Amino acid sequence: MKHIIIGGVAGGATAAARIRRLDEFAEIILLEKGKYISYANCGLPYYIGGTIQERAELFLQTPKSFGRRYNIDVRVENEVIAIDTAAKNITIRRKDGAIYNEQYDKLLLSPGAIPVKPPLQGIDLEGIFTLRNVDDTDDIKAHLNSHHVKSAVVVGAGFIGLEMAENLYHAGAEVSIIEMGNQVMAPVDFSIASHVHQHLKEKGVNLYLEQTVAQFEKRDNRIEVVFKSGKSIVTDMVILSIGVRPETQLAKSAGLKIGETGGIWVDEYLQTSAKDVYAVGDAIEFPHPLTGKPWLNYLANPANRQGRIVADNMATGNTTKYEGAIGTSIAKVFDLTVASTGLAAKRLKQLGIEYGSSTTHSASHAGYYPDALPLTLKLTFDPVSGKLYGGQSVGYGGVDKRIDQIALLIKHGGTVFDLTKVEHTYAPPFSSAKDPVAIAGYVAGNIVSGVMPVITWRQIQEADLSRTLLLDVRTPEEHVLGAIPDSINIPLDDLRSRIDELPKDKTIYIYCAAGLRGYLAMKILKARGFNDIRNLSGGYKTYDLATAPV
Ligand code: FAD
What we know:
This protein is of the alpha/beta class.
C-alpha cells in the first residue's frame, strides 16, 4: 500500500507516524512545501518573545530524524501542485522548479490554513508580518533585532494576536492592539473578554476596540497605521493577525467538494468527496457536535486527533469515525488565562438557540491557603433540561483544568447537574472542597430549577427603574466604593429588620459582589412574600468589568 501525505506538520506528521505503526511495510511519502516538518507552531510566539530561547526547541523532529525513526520518505520543499483523483496521481514541484509525479493508493491532505491579508493600501510594506510558520518567525525575529523595535501594532485581537502582543511587549516594544470588534477574543462572551480588556490596560497595552485599519503608509523607516476613523499610529512593525482561512486551492482545483463554510468537505471517516482521498486539520470543515452545522476549527488538538483517526482509516479501511470538535481552547494573556469550550451565549443567540447562563466567581484554590486568586466561570445551558452548551473561564490559575472537565462533560451530553457530581482532587493548594466547577453547577442548577431567577448585567442596564428597584445587599463600605447607579443599599445582615423599606409592587433586582449574598437575600425576601425578584448573575464584579469604559 502506498500512502502519500501532503503537509508535514500537525495533522500530516501525526498521520504518517500512525500509519507506520499500523503497517510496518507500507510505503509512506510525506510531502511538505516548507523547509521544516513537525514543528511547534503553537510555540512560535513564545520564541519571538524570548520565553523559548533556543530556536532548536521548536523542532520536535527534523525531516531526517522523522524519516529514519518511522521509515518514511520525507520530502521537504516539495509542493504538491495538482491531484488527479481519477488516475490516483499527483504532481509535485521541487524547490529547483523540477516537476514530477507520484501514484498513490491513499492520499491525505493536511495543508493547514493561510492568514487573511486584506487588499489594503501598503499591506506589503516592509515591517508588516503575518505569523504562520517558521519562516515568518525568522523574519519577525530578524526585524526585531535589526530595527531596534520600540513600538509594535498588532491588528486583530484573537488568541494569536494577543499572544503576539504579550510577546512583543516582552521583547521590549510598546504594544498597541487594534480590533474591529467591540471585544478581544471573539469566541468568548463580552463579560469574559472584559477581564482581558482590564488586564491589558493594567499592563500598559494600548487597546483600540471598534477600530478598522484603512491603510498603511511608509514614514521614513517606520509605518503609519491609518484607521478608518482618521486616527493613526506610527510604529516600527505591524503583526497582522486578523484570522486565517482554510488552504483549499489544491483541493478545489482537484475537484474535491468544498463545504458551505469554505473548508474541504469530509465524511465521518475524514474521507473527501473523492475515494481514497482524505483530509484533516485546519483545512477541513466538520459538523459541530452541538449544532450539527459545519464549522471551521483551527486548533492543534483536533488536527492531531484527526491525524490519528485518518491513519486508521487509510491503513485498515474506514473503521474509525470522527465525532467532531466543540472548540476547546485556551490562551495566556500576560498573567491571565482565558479558556472556553462549546457555545458561548453570543453564538447561541446568533444560532437562535434558547439558553440560560450563569456566572460565578470563585478562587483558584482554598482562600485560606496563600496565593488563592480569582477565577470566573461562565456556563451556558439549555434553560429547561440544563444540558450544557458551553463553558468559559478567566483567571490566574487552574482555568485549564476547569474548562477541560466541562469540555469532557459537554462531549458526553452532560448537564449542569452533572457538574456537581464531578469528583475532583482537593487539597488547599489546589482547589476547595467545593470546587469552582461544582459551585458553577449548583448555581446553574438553581437557575434551571427556578430556585434562583437571575438577571444579567446587560438586562440591568436596560431596566425600567419606574417599575424596578435595584437592591445592593453588600456592606455600606462596598457600596460607597462603587455601585450600580440608582441602587439602594441594604446590607444582607440588616435585610430582615429593614424589610419594610422595600416595595412589594416593584420587581426587585438584587445584587452583591459575586452572587452568593444576593442569593441569600433572595431567600429571605421570598419567604416574606416578595415574588418578583431576580439576582444579578456574577454580581457587581461582572457588571463593573463589563460596563467599564475601554
Ligand atoms: P499545519 O500544522 O499548519 O500544517 C500544514 C502544512 O502543510 C504546512 O507546513 C504547509 O507548508 C503544508 N502545505 C500546504 N500546502 C501544501 C502543498 N500543496 N504541498 C506540500 N505542503 C503543503 N492551536 C492550538 O490548539 N493551540 C495553540 O496554542 C495554537 N497556537 C498557534 C500559534 C500559531 C502562531 C499558529 C500559526 C497556530 C497555532 N495553533 C494553535 C493552531 C495549530 O497550529 C493548527 O490548528 C494546526 O497546526 C493545524 O494542523 P494542520 O496539519 O491542519 O496544518
